[in-house]
Amino acid sequence: MKRWILWIIITLVLLVVYAPARALYWVQLPAGISLNQVSGSLWNGSAGQLKVNQQWFYDVSWSLSPTQLLAGRVALQLNVPATENDIAGQGELTYSTAGLKLNELEVAGQLAPLLALTDVAMPIETRGNWQLTLKEYQLQLPLEQRWCEQLTGSAEGQNIEVLVNNQWLSLGEFPLQLGCSEQGAIKLAMAGNNSLGLNFNGTIDSNDVSISGTVRPNPRTPEGLAEMFTYLGQADSQGRYRFSI
């Protein structure tokens, strides 16, 4: 009897290993997600086109870890190459009864596609690049009140420029630290060592995005942009303009 059970388990594993990736066409994917030009196997496969909302990704590849699967976890190594992709990256996603975990995730791209994907509108026209590095990010599923159990990571806006009076003004880099709050929200923190003196703390959870901080003109602040800070109100005794979202 035990031998038959073992053979059944081996057969099921082999079916998964050698099942063609085209089997994904039979799976009902979440709304806004579609796959085209799928090849390989479910174990090691690729998709020529992946659409998430209105953003296209090309030549996406993945691989599953057999040792993790035997341990009751689904570990997916995902790669989106920089060639022909506005947003590219790689990392490992692990799913188990404990929740979802991301390890060694590196994602980067241009700012405009990211703003379109997240449906974020900037107050003035902005362009540049960005990079997200997550050494570890863990959350429980389904998402309810807590979006963050453990998070070690950072993000950075790179070569940021804004359009003021029909002229592109260079702002440089904006590093951001990421973590978890005690309430299970994603915690954001930016120090003021940038061209706008932008300093803020914030949280993101299932209900709200909350950010409060200050901007403070400094010698690196473009003159045309420094004049716009007055719309935030009166500066304090240290020349800082406060804001909150």
UniProtKB/TrEMBL annotation:
InterPro entries: T2SS_protein-GspN. Keywords: Cell inner membrane, Cell membrane, Membrane, Protein transport, Transmembrane, Transport. GO terms for biological process: protein secretion by the type II secretion system. GO terms for cellular component: plasma membrane; type II protein secretion system complex. It holds the Pfam family T2SSN. The keyword Transit peptide does not apply. Its main location: membrane. It comes from the Bacteria. It is found in: Cell inner membrane. Belongs to the GSP N family. This is Type II secretion system protein N.
